[in-house]
Write a structure and sequence with these properties.
Number of strands: 23
Bound molecules: phosphoenolpyruvate, magnesium ion
CATH superfamily of the largest domain: Phosphoenolpyruvate-binding domains
Shape: globular
CATH topology of the largest domain: TIM Barrel
Radius of gyration: 28 Å
Oligomer: single chain
Strand order of the largest sheet: 7-8-15-14-10-11-12-13-9
Structural class: alpha/beta
CATH architecture of the largest domain: Alpha-Beta Barrel
Largest sheet: 9 strands, mixed
Length: 724
């Protein structure tokens, strides 16, 4: 659910006058699904900001949870009435409460009350619903530019939306990551001397990178790969030589770095390809690094506690520097989830928002910032009440973390003792220690393309073998499902971009590329078989659209397997299920596939014909929609009947409400990002699975005109004390 700012205090007064009610109150949704009394006419003013109800709690909470109005002549005797003495509401008998919703999301509740018991008539209900609609516009998060709102006295809060790269919340002073200033000395008399200075600076930069890797990330294979690619960019562009030429032409070393860097930057800015554009950040990173090396100083001063770094673009090495200086979160104007900085941010578990345009221009160093990456929101100069709400949420999260630590070594079970299997989605060897840290049952999805994206090139057989062997070593007998390369779409290697496609998500990507270029698949299969070195091996293919495709890919792997010794103890070849067409070939699929893993990220976009990376469609279609639930329930039943293991490895598996629903449908092997596992484990540990199964069945039967079962399932979960 979205969180919102404070509404204007005069609104309840105007509504109460219009509807002739004694009370009118606005409750606003705060982080952690808390409804807070934000403004009132008629209740005690001191209750504003203090009275809080969980979604699902009390009448107001019930209205938020169900999204339906309640019209009650005798509210106090309603079974869900929750008395809050600080409000002074005991005097009021009747109550009309309507949800404040926008784009399918609940933002709050609007309620009126009267002393006399009465049922509000239809006109009154309609007026209140209309006002709620207008209020929703005000409460909704709005785009940058037109997003000013009253904040701390004398300042104006600004909200920026973006896209989540690493989820999490942070509150703290902002620190700007400014690009290098123009050099003061432009010309030099002695080019030879400048060339020596430059050579020393390059040397310092290279040594600095090595130290960065060695000191900051002892087991940092991922960033190591990223930084290797980063060096490649420098060599590839031949820019060091061009800088030397500029120095020979009479520029100072600083001015030459600045000028050549600027030229490269301009050229790259005109490039549309997202992957190459990402290299722009690497280059800016290097310009800054070289200039600092020439200047002889390294930025190492710690930043204030909890600082949020704001950057237009940032390279991976620079991000590691800032992390060592103590930043707690990152907001990037130009970053994408596939960029190098994103890979490093994820490895560091640093809450990060990308695509927050205009943020740098608006912010001064030291101003307060509030990042809610989960809600894809950054607020500059937030109002104190908003900060207070987030501080409470942060405290609650810390408490939950403490509870999760206790759960870590317990096997994942539901409250009634059913065993569930919680696995990790992994993309970089750097993440392998998370297996033991989370107590996961294995790796349910190893995305083999991520390390290559980080490296910027396809790896050869030996390099791949080394990575896969490390994965199997770390898993120490726990199952690992290796997914073959899923490149194309939004995951492009430099130089490999196919001709521009209208719909890359549905284009020449993933297994389609592998089937047309079987040598790449063969080499990958060989690397996997060699890495297994006689151990058990599970391989699956992404984006399979037909059983024939699956069989062709499987034959490629089997042909390799026939040649490699020692053969794996057990070779299991399964598939991802991401393309709906496969659902109409289930019998054949379940005969041939050793296991099936559902990629709900892609499946959802193809079932609803809604591009997963289009921000305007984010959250529009829900994995908890009746259609998806019907599809998954049928799939679970068919796989169980055929005795074929079924798991879900899309993002949905890592969200507690979705995870319990999947378990309720009979899918009890779930694979997710490491950061998501503890919360899912805690929610499932509190779930009575048989009871929930029958509740879910009832809800699905009565879901005729419901776009999503999220709210009723959430209300049931909260009512039963589940941490969702
Ligand atoms: C998916 O589509 O759900 C999935 C797990 O694959 P990816 O997110 O890597 O496309
Ligand atoms: Mg996918």
């Amino acid at each position: 659910m979205a969180t919102s700012a404070a509404p204007a205090a005069e609104v309840p007064h105007l509504i109460a006058a219009e509807l002739v009610t004694e009370v009118c109150s606005i409750y606003v949704l705060r982080p952690g699904d808390i409804l807070e009394l934000a403004a009132t006419e008629g209740l005690r003013p001191e209750a504003v900001g203090r009275t809080r109800l969980r979604v699902g709690e009390g009448i107001v909470g019930l209205v938020a949870a169900t999204g339906q109005p309640l019209n009650l002549p005798d509210a106090q005797n309603h079974p869900r009435f929750a008395y809050r003495p600080e409000t002074g509401e005991e005097k009021y008998a009747s109550m009309l409460a309507v949800p404040v919703r926008r784009a399918g999301r609940t933002l709050g509740v609007l309620a009126v009350q009267n002393r006399a018991p009465r049922r509000y008539d239809q006109d009154e209900v309609e007026v209140l619903e209309t006002v709620a609609m207008l209020l929703a516009e005000k409460l909704a998060t709005v785009a940058p530019g037109d997003s000013a709102e009253a904040g701390v006295a004398g300042t104006v809060a600004r909200r920026f939306t973006g896209s989540v790269i690493v989820p999490g919340i942070a509150i703290g002073p902002v620190v700007r990551h400014d690009l290098a200033a123009a050099p003061r000395r432009m010309l030099a008399d002695d080019p030879e001397q400048e060339l020596l200075r430059f050579a020393a600076a390059v040397d310092t930069m290279q040594r600095g990178l090595d130290e960065l890797i060695a000191d900051r990330l002892p087991d940092g294979e991922g960033p190591r790969e990223v930084l290797a690619a980063y060096r490649l960019v420098a060599a590839d562009a031949g820019w060091l030589r061009r800088i030397e030429d500029a120095i020979r032409g009479g520029l100072s070393a600083e001015a030459a770095v600045h000028r050549v860097g600027g030229e490269l930057r301009d050229r790259m800015r005109r490039i549309v390809d997202p992957y190459l554009r990402e290299r722009l950040a690497d280059i800016e990173d290097m310009i800054g690094r070289l200039l600092r090396a020439l200047d002889g100083e390294a930025p190492s001063a710690p930043v204030p506690a909890g600082a949020i770094l704001l950057a237009r673009r940032i390279g991976p090495a620079e991000l590691l520097d800032w992390q060592a200086r103590g930043i707690a979160a990152l907001v990037i104007e130009d970053g994408s989830a596939a960029g190098h900085a994103a890979i490093v941010a994820r490895a560091l578990d640093l809450p990060t928002l990308g695509g927050a345009r205009g943020v740098l221009e608006a912010a001064e160093n030291g101003e307060e910032g509030l990042l809610d990456a989960d809600e894809e929101l950054f607020v500059l100069r937030p109002a104190p009440e908003l900060c207070a709400a987030y501080q409470r949420e942060l405290a609650a999260r810390r408490e939950r973390h403490a509870h999760w630590t206790l759960l870590r070594h317990r096997p994942a079970t539901t409250a009634d003792g059913s065993r569930v299997s919680l696995m990790l989605n992994v993309g970089l060897p750097l993440e392998l220690p998370q297996l033991d840290a989370t107590g996961a049952d294995g790796i349910g999805l190893f995305r083999t393309e991520i390390a290559m994206l980080a490296r910027g090139a396809l790896s050869d057989v030996a390099e791949q073998q080394q990575v896969y062997a490390r994965v199997l070593d770390a898993a120490a007998g726990r199952p690992v499902l290796f997914r073959t390369l899923d490149l194309g779409g939004d995951k492009l290697l430099p130089g490999s971009a196919p001709p521009a496609e209208e719909n890359p998500a549905m284009g020449w990507r993933s297994l389609r590329v592998a089937l047309d270029r079987p040598a790449v698949l063969r080499r990958q299969a060989r690397a996997l078989l060699l890495a297994a070195n006689g151990r058990e091996l599970s391989i699956m293919f992404p984006m399979v659209a037909t059983v024939a495709e699956f069989q062709t890919a499987r034959a490629v792997v089997l042909a390799e397997a026939a040649r490699i010794r020692p053969a794996p103890a057990h070779l299991r070849i399964g598939t991802m299920l991401e393309v709906p067409a496969l659902l109409w070939e289930l019998d054949a699929l379940l005969r041939h596939a050793a296991f099936v893993s559902v990629g709900t990220n892609d499946l959802l976009q193809f079932v609803f014909a809604a591009d997963r990376s289009t921000p305007a469609l984010a959250r529009r279609y829900d994995v908890l929609a009746p259609a998806m639930l019907a599809l998954l329930a049928r799939l679970a039943a068919r796989a169980a009947a055929a005795g074929v293991p079924l798991s879900v490895c899309g993002e949905a598996a890592g969200r507690p409400l979705e995870a319990m629903t999947l378990a309720g449908l009979g899918i009890t092997t779930l694979s997710m990002a490491a950061g998501a596992l503890p919360a899912v484990k805690a929610a499932l540990a509190a779930l009575d699975l048989p009871e929930f199964r029958s509740v879910l069945a009832t809800l699905r039967r009565s879901a005729d005109d419901t776009a999503s079962l999220r709210e009723p399932i959430g209300a049931w979960a909260r009512e039963h004390g589940l941490p969702v």
